[in-house]
């Protein structure tokens, strides 16, 4: 570890929300050796395949290393930073003057550092006056955010990773943790081996995660709410409710229970609604009822749904009704997808949030306005991701700044997104690689952003733990951090005094101070104890969980004794709206589910550089049950066309008996920039949860045919 190697820099993995600590030891050739950080509480030295291969992904071959600008309809050409920043500032100024603040939007990323995210939100929401600031975290965590806020009054993950070590039952819902949160999954498996922790996997698709399960529930698509409503009824009927906790700290059990009982009155009805065997439902319910130390982890199978928020609340209801929250080995646990989805939420990186977990109520807007001394504070929510790009397509949004994400691949109806980008008067892209699908959509200005290894700041992982991401590589001469570019544009617009930061520590201190500003325990996110951090202390900041209020009180867990962030400090059990499972269409008889594979990350701009990672699964594919493939004349390795109302892709057929009949699975990673075929974002519909706005990427009606 760091003590053994004085040349090693302690930093954080740039991929998933586990947030593993790393030791990076630079070499003379511009690369670095990467190892796990034995003292980081997220991973204690362990790394997955992606983290372990990070050293293979360092290099400048694919990097964008100088600003680029387009003149008229001509191609992008290199320019100075001053010229590029002037163009951005001029474009924003003229858009404001001609069309008003709502014509400006920012689309950010869970890959950004908290300091970058803070700077973008401050500029947009406080100084340009637009709340059209959303992020690719909308595709990842928005339903969990909305569910948390409905139940707890705040976007709070109540527990910690160490609860996985202490649990006797771990329920994984809509989560292929073995591939998507591998280090955390090994921790669960270790608990199972060491102390007999039972693992229940609830997923329509049989994945690698099921290999460690004591019980696998291959639930019908979209019926998670029914299962957890059935569990709530079962708990009530068998004495499983913690009446004292419910009476002291919650509201709404009777209504939630009545609605659940109407929906699924018993185990038989639950089995029928979910397509599960009655004996399996009964076993799961009995295990949950009898196991006090239960943790329910959930991820994209829950969140990426047209009913994602209800699914989240159906899970939270069961933990609130049993008082299993905020105690060792107990609690609901949202597994964050991206490395800094949590940090983005902390600074208001969603269109329906302000900084420090504040919303858009008039007092909150006023509070942030006064703290920032903001001249043009946005007073109401902006457009969420899908709606934002629809507004761009209609010509209502004229200026867009995309930072650290690739919406032309990853958003639903990605072809429509591509077309929309072509309508902008000002399209600014902050990126660190030369070629990706969004960069090919004719941005007017491209700003070369610092990459992992060069960036300096903080990220927050799934357990509310803030870790430093420290630089250990020399930044190419033409490359700058995102916060710096934002501050330079702000200065050009006349807001220099409010953006006079000279280093990330300046931004972090301001962010920490805002979290405590007129807080007094009314908001969950409070790190004001860090507001006075010196530069040296910021540099050596150890991984630490929030809340960290100035008066003390840091804790690994919340809500064991209530203290929710609703006006009456009670949690709410929520009545889920009736939600029909997704239906196929006669002309599109399959449901297409999209997701990750073990060894790639997002659109492969980094993981694709590692030969080791690229050897795992080498080509875009569609997984299909062999009994669905055979009647279509499709055999293993054949090329097939998957088509939806929105697009088509050519994919290699992989027979998979773990794939539910009538469904398909295709990975999200391939794009026009890295393959000649196989871009699935273009196929995904834009159905979304009405509360969270999160797109349903798991159930697009589709056809499958021989290519
Ligand atoms: Fe990185 Fe996630 Fe793997 Fe940890 S589990 S090494 S954070 S990708």
TrEMBL record:
The entry assigns this protein to a family as follows: Belongs to the prokaryotic molybdopterin-containing oxidoreductase family. NasA/NapA/NarB subfamily.
Biological classification of the source? Bacteria, Pseudomonadati, Pseudomonadota, Alphaproteobacteria, Hyphomicrobiales
Task: State the needed cofactors, names only.
Answer: Mo-bis(molybdopterin guanine dinucleotide); [4Fe-4S] cluster
> Which positions fall inside the 4Fe-4S Mo/W bis-MGD-type domain?
6-62
GO biological process: one example: cellular respiration
The answer to whether UniProt assigns keyword Metal-binding to this entry is yes
Asked if the keyword Oxidoreductase belongs to this entry, the reply reads: yes
> Can you tell which superkingdom this protein's organism belongs to?
Bacteria
An example of a GO molecular function for this protein is: molybdopterin cofactor binding
One GO CC annotation: membrane
Name it. Assimilatory nitrate reductase (NADH) alpha subunit apoprotein
The full protein's residues present here are 2 to 708 of 891
Q: Which organism is it from?
A: Aquabacter spiritensis
Q: Which UniProt keywords apply?
A: 4Fe-4S, Iron, Iron-sulfur, Metal-binding, Molybdenum, Nitrate assimilation, Oxidoreductase
